[in-house]
Amino acid sequence: MIMASISTNKKTGAKRVAFVGCDGVRRSIYLGPCNDRVAREVQRHVESIVSAAAADVPVDPRTGTWLTKISDAMHEKFVNAGLVVSRTSQVVVTLGAFLDEYLKRRTDAKASTHLFFGHTARNLRTFFGESRPLASITPAEADDFRRWISTTEKLSPSTVARRCSLARTYFRDALRRRLIDGNPFADIGGGPKSNPERQRFIDRTTISKVIEACPNAAWRALVALSRFGGLRVPSEALILRWGDINWAEDRMTIRSPKTEHHPGKASRVCPLFPEVRQYLDELHSLAPDGAVFILEALRPTGSNPGDCNLRTGLERIIDRAGVQAWPKLWHNMRSSRQTELTEEFPSHVVTSWMGNSERIADRHYLQVLDSHFKKAARPRARAVSESTRNDAHGEPGNEKTPGIPRVSAIKVGDTGLEPVTSIL
Known about the structure:
Blueprint: E1 4-8, E2 14-20, E3 26-33, H1 36-55, H2 61-69, H3 72-80, H4 95-105, H5 111-128, H6 139-151, H7 157-176, H8 204-212, H9 217-227, E4 245-246, E5 251-255, E6 267-271, H10 274-286, H11 310-321, H12 329-344, H13 347-354, H14 358-365, H15 370-376, H16 379-392, H17 412-415
Antiparallel strand pairs: 1-2, 2-3, 4-5, 5-6
Helix pairs in contact: 4-5, 5-7, 8-9, 8-11, 9-10
């Protein structure tokens, strides 16, 4: 580790921080009379800067933020010591120009991701201004930005969190390119990236009414693929091909544009659930010879599946069905399916079928239902469980628990327990 030392002039009390740069030359920063705390802080940041330069990596975000806050006089001492570039001699890069270049470089991002990038970039341009020097934006102004999008833009807490996180990503890129000394958004806490208030479990009675109100077989298949297959709409559903269906083994291969950039995540195999198969059978009987895509009738005329507006169509169907529309129409159907499946299968199996991780499932998909509370509150189920443990150890059942009879043999009919039935 790069070390710096502190020395004090016994006559004047002035302190200096000495260090050896990457070129092997010993240099000093003269601080004048100051207390030990200030000297140790300067020492720590000098070590951070020299260590980062030796490793050819950006400085620690805390050091970068500190450099943006110090006075011009103190900053110039670091310039004279060869640690940083002078504020006055730096090429002025404006926020607008930087954002334009960043968005051009992100050729790896999907069209929907670029749309998300654009919303955050628009917020930054509106708040700070196109011509604002990038390096002049301070951590305090980053705090102001977060408050502004929370109030003026009237965004949900989860959307605020995502946009602040992306703003932090923008400025981290600028830091790595050494356009700024520190990331002003480094300490901005976005908050929760999920919004439980917008979660809804779409029960089977509701979805049956919606499917019955669909205008044709393609729409019925789409709703079934979302609610019972757990497919993402539109990205996964609209590129599903007849060749992806393995009728003999009741499986289907789902191609996922959202996760294809992760190794091994370009596609996944999940069961051809009975609730899905019946609608695919219907659609298959109507498909013309040579048909490739299952939902050809709903695909947009362009090459990008995201260009269609299926949400509006689903809203009309829900209204026709006479049921209350729910937030996040497609996401909550997928979330409902993942919650259902997790009740019956191990989580690692379900996440493999759904194409996400257990961490993402816990944060964004799995829901706590009224049925969970009701099941936990059944007293006779607890009594049977206690009796089972006692019988296994050869102990008299429940003799220490007044009012609960000993159960010597467990039968579904005798105990009142509901038989476990498949949700499929």
